[in-house]
Predict the 3D structure of the following.
Amino acid sequence: MVPYPQPEIEEVDEDVPELEEADEVPELEEAGAGGADAAGEKAIHNRAEKKSRKAIQKLGMRPIPGIVRMSVKKSNQVLFVINTPDVFKSPTADTYVVFGEAKTEDNGQMAAAAQQAAMAQQAAAQQAAMAQAGGGAAASSLEPVSEEAVGGDAAPAEEEGVESKDIELVMSQAGCTRAKAVKALKENDNDLVNAIMSLTT
């Protein structure tokens, strides 16, 4: 076997030049995001999406401008939503192709949040009306008492046999008061799923 010659290593004592600092360097993130939003330019697409768009153009599909939001209903509660989609339509049929980032929305949670906001707004309006009436006791005695005001929070005696974490889970999922959650859990033998279903349907 023939030995290979070993390379020779030399050490060089030269001064490494220092780098010069640039005065102004543009920030890439701000320039890219601001330019695309302000000018309404197309977003950056990956290779597969570029190929798909090119194929759609070859099929004769035309872009439809002015569409702000597109939603697809999957079930009673779940929606797939695309904000600011790119929509293409076939000229010969009612066929559409939609590009964009799909996000899921839960109708049940949105409805519960809207209901809570409406209730809070109604309560604020009632308080404002009482304050304007110069109210106090006379005005409040004429107001009907709501069911939630009477049974606001369940008493600790009513919560026996029901875990507090189960109560809080039912309250958050069904968007109900503590008393209603306790009642639903007791009626359904502490079964979380059935308790939530009984309150939401």
Notes: Helices lie at 28-39, 47-58, 107-132, 137-142, 147-150, 164-174, 178-187, 192-200. The first helix runs from residue 28 to 39.
